Amino acid sequence: VQLQASGGGLVQAGDSLRLSCAASGRTFSSVDMGWFRQAPGKEREFIGGINWSGGSTYYKDSLKGRFTVSRDNAKNTGYLQMNSLKPEDTAVYYCAADPDIATMVFRYWGQGTLVTVSS
C-alpha cells in the first residue's frame, strides 16, 4: 500500500480542516488505517484510527471530540477531520495503514502534510 497525505496548510485558531490520505494498492480496503502527527521538537503522536470497513474508530483520549477519522474504500481514501483547531495542533500529519495487531506498529506510511495553526 502506498499512501499520500494532503490537505494541510495555514489556518487560524478555531478553523476546521480536513486532511486526505490517498492510497494505492488493492489491499487498502482490507486494512486498518490511522493518523499521527509530529510537532516540532516532539515525538510522533497517535491521533486516531479506523478499522478496515470503517465501522469502528478509536482515538487518543485527549483528541477525542475535535478529530474524526473516516474512510471511503470506494475511493481508496482516508480522512481526518479536524475542528476547533488550536496553535498547539501545529504539526506534520501522517497517515498510516496496516498495523500489526500485537504491536500496533503500522507497516505503511504516507509522506506527511504540514498543518500550521496561527493564533
Tell me briefly what this model is.
The protein is mainly β.
Account of the protein in words:
By secondary structure, the protein is an all-beta fold. 0% of the residues lie in helices and 53% in strands. It contains no helices and eleven strands. The chain has strands spanning 2-6, 9-12, 17-24, 33-38, 45-50, 57-59, 67-72, 77-82, 91-99, 106-109, 113-118. The strands form two sheets. Strands 2, 4, 5, 6, 9, 10 and 11 form a seven-stranded mixed β-sheet that branches. A four-stranded antiparallel β-sheet has the order 1-3-8-7, with no helix packed on it. Strand 5 and strand 6 form a beta hairpin. The relative contact order is 0.31. The mean pLDDT is 95.
Q: Please trace the helix and strand order, writing H or E for each element.
A: EEEEEEEEEEE
General shape: globular
Q: Percent range for helical residues? A: under 10%
Per DSSP, the total helix count is 0
How is the main sheet built? Answer: 7 strands, mixed
Mean pLDDT: 95
Please write out the topology.
Elements lengths: L1 E5 L2 E4 L4 E8 L8 E6 L6 E6 L6 E3 L7 E6 L4 E6 L8 E9 L6 E4 L3 E6 L1
Parallel strand pairs: 2-11
Antiparallel strand pairs: 1-3, 3-8, 4-5, 4-9, 5-6, 7-8, 9-10, 9-11
Question: Which short descriptors sum up this protein?
Answer:
single chain; 119 residues; mainly beta; seven-stranded mixed β-sheet; four-stranded antiparallel β-sheet; 11 strands; 0% helix; 53% strand
